[in-house]
Amino acid sequence: MSVAKHVFVLVALGAGGGLMGLVGGSVSQAQTPRVEITSILHTGDPAPGIPNATVVYTSIPQIDGQGNVLINGYYRIDGDPFAREGLWYGGSGSLEAIAYEGMQAPDLQPGVVIDFMGDTWLGENGWVGYSGFLSGTGITPGFNDKANFAGPPGDIRK
Questions:
Q1: Torsion angle in degrees (nearest 10) through CA of 127, 109, 55, 116
Q2: What gap in Å lies between CA 58 and CA 10, rounded to an integer?
Q3: What's the predicted TM-score (pTM) here?
Q4: Average pLDDT score over residue span 91-116
Q5: In the predicted model, what is the mean pLDDT of the chain?
Q6: Between the CA atoms of 126, 131, 136 and 139, what dihedral angle is there, to the nearest 10 degrees?
C-alpha cells in the first residue's frame, strides 16, 4: 500500500526576502521515499486568472486533503504602482483566482466589488472561505461593507 503526503515550502531568495516562491510536491512511501518538487507560484509569475498582472508576494499556503493549496498573496497590474491582494486555489499548473481586489463580489448586485480581503480558510474537502470588504453600488462604509464567502471553487457564495 502506498501512502502519499503533500509537501509545500515557501522559499525566500535574495536580501530581505525580496524574491519569494512557493514549491510543492509529494512524498510517496512505496519501497523507497520519492520526492517531486514543483514550483506552484513564484514572485514575477503572471497572476493566475488576473489579466495583465504579476505576482509580487505570496504567503504561507493552506493545504487541503487532495494536496491543493490556497495561497493568499499580492499582485500588481501592469502600469499600476500599487499592489493588490489576491487569493488562488489549485495545484501546480492549475491555480485559479478565487478572489481579488476589484472583482465583482459573488452573489451580490452588479457593481459591488471586493475592496480588500480579510481572513481566508480552506476545508479538508477543498471548500474555500474568505471575508471581504466591499465597495461600490449601494455599499455604505461601516454599515454594509463586509461579507463572508464560502463554497467549492467555481461556486463560492455569500
A1: -90
A2: 8
A3: 0.77
A4: 93
A5: 84
A6: 130
